[in-house]
Amino acid sequence: MSFQPRIIQYAWVVPDLAEAARRWHAATGTGPFLVNRDLRLDEPRYRGAPSATRFSTAVAQHGEVQIELVEQHDDGPSAYRDTVPAGATGFHHVAFIAEDFAADLAHYTGQGFAVAADGLFGPMRYAYVDTSAVLGHMIEIVEDKPAIRAFFAAVRKAADRWDRDPATLLRELG
Fold it and tell me: I need a surface site. Which of 96, 124, 126, 168 has the fewest CB within 10 A?
């Protein structure tokens, strides 16, 4: 069996979520963006050490894939700053949902790729694998859990029902 995960998300690090969302909408019609401000992660680690990166995200559906925008709010080292300097916009990662998180992570670490960041988002494990030297970006592995499936379904539903009104381009989540 060959390893071939289905990429479900493309992500960019941006200096300003709102401005980046407006640019995405103007250029591609993508929207609405569901915004999670100051995300709280459990047991976050950066390069194996405890970390506390402050960041927010905005996620929208574009066809079969999600577009994620990430804004880091602090100057600390992070998986985001590993590939995109502060104040810049740059492609950061592709993501996929892993039915067997440990095996999929081992697929990459077994090839010598380092885990740049990992932890828990609620009950779901995640890891950014630093494939940037080979691919030019990282890979995010997201554990398959009902909560992440529900969130991704909500993003798709918001896109399907959106009236394309720029006034409702950004939707703040709790």
Answer: 168
Predicted pLDDT of residue 1: 53
The mean pLDDT value of the chain amounts to: 96
The residues, ordered by sequence, that sit 6+ positions from 22 with a Cβ below 8 Å of its Cβ are 166, 169
Question: Would you state the structure tokens that stand for residue 100, as one six-digit string?
Answer: 């067997």
Long-range CB contacts for residues 162-169, cutoff 8 Å, separation at least 24: 162/31, 162/32, 164/29, 164/31, 166/22, 166/25, 166/31, 168/32, 169/21, 169/22, 169/25, 169/31, 169/32, 169/33
How many whole angstroms separate alpha carbon 11 and alpha carbon 94? Answer: 6
User: 89-104 pLDDT, tens per residue?
Assistant: 999 999 999 999 999 9
